[in-house]
Design brief:
Urease, subunit C, domain 1; alpha/beta; binds zinc ion; 2 domains; four-stranded parallel β-sheet; 17 strands
Length: about 450
């Protein structure tokens, strides 16, 4: 069958390749679901092989690799605004866990995920690393929506609507891993919730299965000072040390939050090749602490960016997260050079792809990679004039300026319109859930 070509013609292309090349007046050729070539825009007209291709003019736009949200609980978007202005443990134990126990099932999971997907695609996110109950439902819904994702196979000690004990969570994790492996947009990761909610025996099995199946481990680690202090009091060890002894501190680990790290731990994380998923807005809102981003980047740790769930952020906007991450790193370290605009964009793209073990498939604009792309319109007043498109993306652009998104070569947003999702229906279902939840309170 003949290949289907799309030719995109933006004003700038931020490749996010190893040299961070920024191309002016270049055209990007998509063949089926892959990036085929980057050409001079002038050359295209002379090439017969592209006769009949879809030409997509993108005036005033900057084209980037699609954003990778490296930590979220997408379905929790149905709990957005349910409980706010509270510290983590009170928020979790008195509001979120009871609400999850009461409401979460397959239908909630799918409806929440669709709401999140509409918001994420509109904000330029093309891939997410999710952690939630009913991962089978998450996987099928993502595939149906057309979004790329790594689905977290959740593990906990305590019961939920999904499983009763750690053994059942693990059993179901393996079953779902097998069930979803044929879905082309979906990969899986083991997702033990946190050191304080999963005991040693299941964590040993997580380490073993991660190694056998060659899949990442996605886990909240050192989210607050209180978590670390409590563990030290109970076990005499800090959680990261315990995870290290259980065989989990290695390049497969995506350690989320990491607000509490002493210099020795930063060294250990760097040496072991651990990936850190930094969620600055969730950490700030819950007053959980501040991840030492400048120090981690100085040690070449692979740091990626996540929004966390919409119940603790309260949006799923990676452009906002980039800006917050960079500003927070500068303010917290006293160094204006910390977390540059380039580093912020890398964290939201290639670093996320690497953490998810997808670095050879997505995360940069290079021939052969999958066509996950976002176009941002810089013609708005707040992003003019353009001395440097990199700075405009990292420090000034809003999610509402995302005009076009492709995932796996398929247009998902064209000229600000969702191509496949019915936003009115998605929002109506979200409102119906909110009415049910509100009337039961
Ligand atoms: Zn989280």
């Amino acid at each position: 069958m003949a290949q289907r070509y799309q030719i995109l013609k933006p004003d700038w292309i931020l490749t996010v390749d190893a040299d961070f090349a920024v191309l002016r007046d270049a055209a990007l050729v998509i063949a089926d679901n892959r990036i085929d070539a980057l050409l001079d825009a002038g050359e295209i007209a002379e090439l017969d092989c592209f006769a009949g291709a879809d030409i997509v003019e993108l005036p005033g736009r900057v084209l980037l690799p699609g954003f990778v949200n490296s930590h979220t609980h997408a379905s929790m978007s149905l709990f957005r605004g349910l409980a706010d202005d509270l510290p983590l443990m009170e928020w979790l134990t008195e509001h979120i866990w009871p609400a999850e126990a009461r409401w979460v099932g397959p239908e909630f999971t799918a409806d929440g995920l669709r709401l999140a997907a509409a918001e994420m695609i509109r904000g330029g996110t093309t891939c997410l690393n999710d952690m939630f109950y009913f991962p089978d439902e998450v996987a099928r819904t993502l595939q149906a929506v057309g979004m790329r994702g790594v689905v977290g196979l959740i593990v906990l000690d305590f019961p939920s609507a999904w499983a009763q004990d750690a053994d059942e969570y693990l059993h179901k994790a393996l079953a779902v891993h097998d069930e979803i492996r044929e879905l082309p947009l979906i990969d899986s990761a083991l997702a033990p919730h946190a050191p304080y909610t999963v005991s040693d025996e299941p964590l040993r099995k997580v380490a073993m299965y991660s190694n056998e199946l060659d899949i990442p481990v996605h886990m909240h680690v050192h989210e607050t000072a209180g978590e670390v202090a409590e563990a030290e009091q109970k076990t005499g060890r800090r959680p990261l040390e315990r995870l290290d002894q259980l065989g989990l501190v290695n390049p497969s680990l995506i350690a989320v939050h990491m607000t509490e790290l002493n210099p020795l731990e930063i060294e250990r994380v760097a040496e072991a090749g651990v990936n850190v998923a930094h969620c600055p807005e969730s950490n700030l809102k819950l007053a959980s602490g501040i991840c030492p981003l400048a120090a981690l980047l100085a040690q070449d740790v692979n740091v990626c960016l996540g929004t966390d769930g919409a119940a603790s952020n309260n949006d799923l906007d990676l452009l906002g997260e980039m800006r917050t991450a960079s500003l927070l790193a500068k303010g917290a370290s006293g160094d204006a050079r910390a977390c540059t605009a380039r580093q912020a964009i890398e964290m939201a793209t290639i670093n996320g792809a690497r953490a998810l073990a997808l670095g050879d498939r997505i995360g940069s604009i290079e021939a052969g990679k999958l066509a996950d792309l976002v176009a941002i319109d810089l013609r708005a007043a707040n992003t003019q004039p353009v001395y440097d498109p990199v700075a405009q993306v990292a420090y000034a652009a809003a999610a509402s300026q995302v005009s076009d998104v492709w995932i796996d070569g398929v247009p998902q947003l064209r000229e600000y319109e969702l191509c496949h999702l019915d936003q009115a229906e998605i929002v109506a279902r979200a409102r119906a859930w909110a009415n049910r939840i509100e009337s039961a309170r």
